[in-house]
What we know:
The chain is of the alpha/beta class. It folds into 2 domains: about 5-285, 3-Layer(aba) Sandwich (UDP-N-acetylmuramoyl-L-alanine:D-glutamate ligase), CATH 3.40.1190.10; about 290-425, Protein-Tyrosine Phosphatase, Chain A, CATH 3.90.190. Helices cover about 40% and strands about 15% of the residues. The chain is built from 15 helices and 17 strands. Helix 3 (about 55-70) packs across helix 9 (about 255-265) and helix 11 (about 310-320) packs parallel to helix 12. It is globular and about 60 Å long.
Amino acid sequence: MSVADSPALRDWLGRIERLHPKEIELGLDRVREVAARLSLTFACPVITVGGTNGKGSTCAMLESILLAAGYRVGLYTSPHLVRFAERARVGGAPADDADLVAQFEVVEAARGAVALTWFEFTTLAVLRLFGQRALDAVILEVGLGGRLDAVNLIDADCAIVTSVDVDHTEYLGDSRERIGREKAYIFRAARPAICSDPSPPVSLVDHAQSIGADLWLLGRDFNHTGDRQQWAWAGRVQRRSGLAYPALRGANQLQNAAGALAALEALRERLPVPQQAVRQGLAAVSLPGRFQVLPGQPVVILDVAHNPHAAAHLAVNLDAMGGFGRTFAVFGVMRDKDVDGVIAALKHRVDHWLAVGLPGPRAAGPEWIAARLAAAGIARADARTSIECHPDPSSALAAARERASANDRIVVFGSFLTVADILARAT
């Protein structure tokens, strides 16, 4: 199958983009109206996953474990890196473009005069696709926030908030407490509400308690321990020991895995999962762009870290890699992010910065990024550090490879679009 979207799918995605004047307009009234016309229902358990960082990893682990247990799983994630169909996986594989086009046609007929954003329209199409399949479980990743995100129109049987930090402040608020409350709205009364953030905002806990959700907190209701060889997990009832570390790289992946296992314990009566499936699922899980190390020398690491919280995790993971010579950073970012915070988290781990341009009106230009790097005290050109500007990530990566020796490393980060450009040209 071609890596690129089919012409018919590309045409539809372009048409959908023109339906609404705004890229993002939070609120459930419009999308709920169209969803009612589509009669969206699921006969199987639904797990919704929200949070600032770690959502994609948690979803990938849940899918991998449930597939190893023999279940037929639907997984909805966003954004995609190369192909739109990455967002809609059925039975462990991306949905067929033709099936997605068929769902777009149904949503278009159902919406009437209702103007849907691109995300709302495509979310409804994927949800209906899942509803048409004989699935044993559905996993839904929240796009933005929680309370007003289109995914929240589905009443999940179990909801997970992976972490809470400051991001998307123009939509969610400028503090962890405000953002935590927004994310807590994916919880439902009398249903499992998992939070794998080790220090959850009070607002999240208060909201869960106020609606009568069955709140599971890391450190209280479930926990994890480990040494260099293996790790163990304990929940309210279940214990899982002698586990190999998840195939996803990164020090924060045990936190994500712990939340996933808590959800599986909470749903154990409907989705029993044997120990061997947990082991197999964690060993087999993969997720592009999350501390993904490409083969060859110099080492190239791809990471979609785009906020200070994720950048801090990236810094820890770089430190854990061991001895390398110089570190080159291919860095492209959206202007509306906390760019200074991202730079601060990594400026002492990077020797040479290659600022890059990205598509879209929100993207920061290379020279603008270079100015922020210089303002952070990074020298544009001296014996130890440098700043260069390049039009796109691929040209910057080629330049970094020219300069780097075999024992150096190159990290590509700052946005999904930064990583996507590299992956699209590598496949």
